[in-house]
């Protein structure tokens, strides 16, 4: 068989290195162990990339998919940590970038009746790696309820409230549970959200939010203080966005912090 030309390995004369090149929007089954020592089976949306030196015309896109699939029909977290090093070797790269985003489910019982329901959270594992170092960031997107302190203070009847989303990213020392990060965020809001609520539960949730008003600024500060109190968290970035119920815009706030700085 005639040898096929390898265009990707040709020299590129423009002298422009590429920060990231690879594949994204690739879906793949994964297994995640939860805090109850059970295994969740979910589907991740995957991004795989490497840095491309200026002298190479292109990378070998098929090798990204081959690297992913060589672990079999389903990945575990341990497999995921191995992928960046395999990309560095297979693509002769100096730096690899891996991202897995997936739905993670937690069973929550309603606060009064105990009615069970599954609440989904978006979780992302992001890994940047060289041959000598690996940087792992865990991100959780947590839906919450917030009630406006200003509205409560100036209104004779009620106060406006809304759902929001908190995107919380951490670097950590010892292994950390996704559930613990979710709980930290939910405790920082006016009230947490549930999948199933009966009337007694709805009353309790409404009153809990009313008793715990927070601005979007309060929300990120609450998360920040709790994070700073956990010695295992080495760095975090938290962004809260409220889907305003009486404005035609959203409100947001963000805090980033590194331990020791």
From TrEMBL:
Gene Ontology annotations of biological process type: tetrahydrofolate biosynthetic process
Pathway per the UniProt entry: Cofactor biosynthesis; 7,8-dihydroneopterin triphosphate biosynthesis; 7,8-dihydroneopterin triphosphate from GTP: step 1/1
UniProt GO molecular function: GTP cyclohydrolase I activity
Protein keywords: Hydrolase
Top-level taxon in the UniProt lineage: Bacteria
Class of the enzyme per the UniProt entry, highest EC level: hydrolase
Site residues, May be catalytically important: 148
Catalytic activity, as annotated: GTP + H2O = 7,8-dihydroneopterin 3'-triphosphate + formate + H(+)
UniProt-listed Enzyme Commission number(s): 3.5.4.16
Record flagged with keyword Lipid biosynthesis: no
Family (UniProt): Belongs to the GTP cyclohydrolase IV family.
Role noted for this protein: Converts GTP to 7,8-dihydroneopterin triphosphate.
UniProt protein name: GTP cyclohydrolase FolE2
Organism: Sulfuriroseicoccus oceanibius
